[in-house]
Amino acid sequence: MTTDLHLNLSKTSRQYEYTYPCVPMALIIGFLFGVLDSTNNTNRTVMCALAIPSKKAQVFAVARFYQALSAAIPLFLSAYLTTYRLLLIEFIICVVGAGLYLRVVHKIKHHTHEEPNSFEAFTRKESVAQ
Fold first, then answer.
1. In a 3-state reduction of DSSP, which class is residue 35?
2. Burial level of 66, CB count in 10 A (0-12/13-18/19+)?
3. Cα separation values, 111 from 27, 28, 71, 106, 107, Å
4. How far is CA 88 from CA 8, 81, 92, in A?
5. Which of 38, 54, 73, 75 has its CA 20 to 30 A from that of 118?
6. Whole-angstrom Cα distance, residue 19 to residue 2?
7. Tens of pLDDT, residues 94-129
8. Which of these, 31, 39, 59, lies nearest to 123 by C-alpha position?
9. Distances from the Cα of 39 to the Cα of 43, 53, 76, angstroms
10. DSSP-derived secondary structure letter, 1
11. Cβ proximity of 18 and 75 under 8 Å
12. Contact, 70 vs 92, CB < 8 A?
């Protein structure tokens, strides 16, 4: 909102399209990113503990790795794409992540009615069925 469409590709002399950058806006965005990261970590910890209780630390570490990888993709592409295309890539990554999240929640929810905290047995049953 505070940068020009082609600012990351070349120098421009155009004015800001929506709003000017300011310290309060930067602080609000930083605060919101902190809240998002905190809730995301809490949610990921609970899901890892429910999904695979015996290896929750390893699953959490793998999940954090994929989060960092998905955040790095737009960072490396920013020198070649316009701002709107970067936002489209980030939107696609968010939709895919939300879909996978809902899939895991669905599996955990339906499996916990049978045997609580044994998602490993469920995944073994699923792989045998295939």
1. helix
2. exposed
3. 42, 40, 31, 8, 6
4. 16, 10, 6
5. 38
6. 5
7. 898 889 888 888 887 776 544 445 555 555 655 555
8. 59
9. 6, 20, 26
10. -
11. no
12. no
8 Å CB contact between 79 and 8: yes
Q: Rounded CA gap, 85 and 9, in Å?
A: 12
Contact call for residues 81 and 89 (beta carbons, < 8 A): yes
The whole-number pLDDT of residue 129 equals 56
Task: List all residues 6 or more positions away from 121 whose beta carbon is below 8 Å from its beta carbon.
Answer: 115
Check: CB of residue 45 under 8 Å from CB of residue 52: no
The tokens for 11 are 């120098």
Residues 118/56, Cβ–Cβ less than 8 Å: no
How much is the pLDDT for 113? 47
Give residue 78's pLDDT: 77
CA dist 129 and 41 (Å) reads 33
